[in-house]
Design goal:
2 domains; elongated; 9-stranded antiparallel beta sheet; mainly beta; 12-stranded antiparallel β-barrel; single chain; SH3 type barrels; Lipocalin
Length: 374
């Protein structure tokens, strides 16, 4: 009896093993064939793979100081540490700059810690650790540029008739070795006097600034040109033209925070609208300019920025001239923003007009505007 039970159990065990082996074999065979999915690299997109095995498609904007700016097709602008990038592929030619000053261009591939450029079928390898910056190649000039346009309007009718607007616009071109910026701001305000029904202007000013920076390394840059043009009727200023050069330094440059300072000599020419008798309406001065720019990403949709510069010139040209600008940029959609900006200007020694009237030293304005980024 015991022998019969043992024989039956042995047969049952053999049958179970026989049934299980194909299943185990199939699972093993299936597992050996399974691989992580790899996206199809369509030429319409740049591709970046993170070390977490996540893929993003979109556009390479730039890379500087080991920070890659990548505009994701779904997640908008992303700032990624280069050390977190496992793979990077470009859809078109990119320009790279190495620490030794070498500049090269071609289709870019970063993979397994190696940097390669493919140009006319020839692949050239570079040391990834010596990479300073990446930017779109000059063959794709449009991709080097970006810009913005903001406008704020206040229109009132009825007991008070008033019209105000503040307009600002700017463009930037950034390559692997340089940066060009230009910004324009116009401020205008008028109201109707209820007694005389005369329209009176209370603000009318324009400011155009432009700069060109050349990067030495991730920390130091040379500002080869720093231009500013200002006209302001209520500051008794027909125009003021400022030109300077400077040496700049990146104090902080992380994915969320950027802080730069620059210092250099300058030259200024001023022409005044109306001056007192025996006073010249033209003044020229050599001076010194100190500037700083700070940006901080509060959240993914809110950015804070502040900039300040002071021009130290002689008293006849206005003495120390200060300009401060700070505010929040709130992203509404991919390309549209709501901006709240505070402007503060101070001229230590404004020029009196022929009647002896001296303009106020300080000017402040808070502007809420809608903007479009392109």
């Amino acid at each position: 009896m015991k022998k019969l039970i043992a024989t039956t159990l042995a047969k049952a065990f053999i049958i179970l093993v026989s049934l299980a082996l194909p299943i185990i074999g199939y699972a093993t065979e299936d597992k050996s064939k399974w691989q992580k999915p790899t996206p199809v690299f369509k030429q319409d997109f740049d591709w970046v793979k993170l070390k977490s095995d996540e893929w993003l498609k979109g556009d390479i904007v730039s890379m500087y100081d080991e920070k890659l700016e990548f505009e994701s097709d779904e997640l908008d602008m992303q700032t990624i540490d280069l050390e977190d990038v496992a793979e990077l592929r470009s859809k078109q030619w990119q320009s790279i700059r190495m620490f030794d000053g070498t500049i090269a261009e071609g289709y870019l591939v970063i993979k397994e810690g190696q940097l390669s450029l493919v140009k006319h079928g020839v692949t050239t390898h570079f040391e990834l650790s010596q990479l300073l910056s990446i930017a779109s190649s000059g063959k794709n000039e449009r991709d080097l540029w970006d810009g913005y346009f903001n406008i704020g309007i206040n229109l009132r009718e009825g007991n008070t008739v008033q019209f105000d607007y503040t307009l600002s616009a700017g463009v930037q071109r950034r390559s692997s070795s340089s940066r060009f910026k230009a910004d324009y701001t116009a401020d205008y305000s008028r109201y109707e006097d209820q007694d005389t029904e005369e329209m009176k202007v209370t603000a009318d000013s324009e400011r155009l600034t432009s700069s060109y920076d050349w990067f030495f390394n991730p920390k130091i840059y040379f500002r080869a040109a720093d231009l500013e043009y200002i006209t302001d009727e209520f500051l008794n200023l027909d125009y003021r033209i400022h030109y300077g050069i400077a040496l700049g330094y990146h104090i902080i440059d992380t994915g969320r925070t950027s802080w730069d300072v620059n210092l250099g000599p300058s030259y200024q020419m001023s022409k005044f609208i109306d001056v007192q008798e025996n006073e010249s309406d033209n003044e020229n001065s050599v001076g010194l300019t100190l500037g700083t720019d700070f940006t901080f990403e509060v959240t993914g949709d809110i950015d804070y920025d502040a900039s300040y510069n002071v021009q130290v010139i002689d008293e006849a040209s206005g003495g120390n001239i200060h300009h401060f600008q700070t505010g929040l940029e709130i992203e509404l959609t991919n390309d549209f923003d709501l901006d709240m900006t505070l402007y503060a200007d101070r001229t230590e020694n404004p020029k009196a007009d022929s009647g002896g009237n001296i303009p106020e030293k300080n000017d402040y304005r808070l502007v809420v505007s809608f903007g479009y980024d392109f």
